[in-house]
Amino acid sequence: MARAMWIATALSLFPEMFPGPLGESLAGKALRDGVWDLSAIDIRRFAKDRHRTVDDAPFGGGAGMVMKPDVLSAAIEAVAVPGVPKVLLSPRGAPFSQARGRELAAGPGVLLVCGRFEGVDERVIEAQALEEISVGDFVLSGGEIAAMAMMDCCVRLLPGVMGAANSAHEESFEDGLLEYPHYTRPATWAGPDGIERRVPEVLLSGHHGKVAEWRMKQREEITRRRRPDLWARSRTAAGNDEK
Ligand code: SAH
User: Which residue of 33, 41, 88, 199 sits 20 to 30 Å from the alpha carbon of 76, by its own alpha carbon?
Assistant: First the structure.
């Protein structure tokens, strides 16, 4: 039986930002091929007054505006589908991860609520049971780019989108380690600093076992040096405390 299409819905005050970069390359082709579908819906459509107001000043004072609960909730109500996770992009959210991306990609799709201004009225998060997700410890001006990053991560995991590369599971984060370094032709290359750099000999040896061993060693080395947090976790997971 054919797999049902994976459906991403974005609620945004700037729906014309979509598909944006997701219309290109892998994700764009998959979109045109009907592997997934994207609808971006304007939250302003659900405003009730003549001025189409979507935000208001914060109770308690302070800078900026807050997205109104009634309007946002009506928008969510109109597009939510039972069984499809409802996510609010938020710097306060749980850090997005490859693991969460895999879970979402394995499901029917995702509803992504994109905040603007200072954020959204807390009561909508509660009443709509929104899962708050962050794409990193920095502040964007809106949730749209964060939503696109999440969609991109999920879409490349959908069956058929990436082909063989996807099944390898050797990518960064898939097993808690960062990726090994890549090289392509020419085997010797002089950079702008005039230094001739040669590809590591083992990669030219044609010895698959040795190549695999070298790559694993590199992954461990790079992870240990750059991401001690990931390294510590991968050691714990492996139940292996040598090194
Ligand atoms: N006042 C908020 C920041 C609001 S930024 C605070 O201090 O936390 C406006 C909107 O951009 C947010 O509502 C959210 O939807 C989005 N956004 C900003 N940074 C984000 C991040 N790191 N991850 C996910 N969404 C983010």
Answer: 33
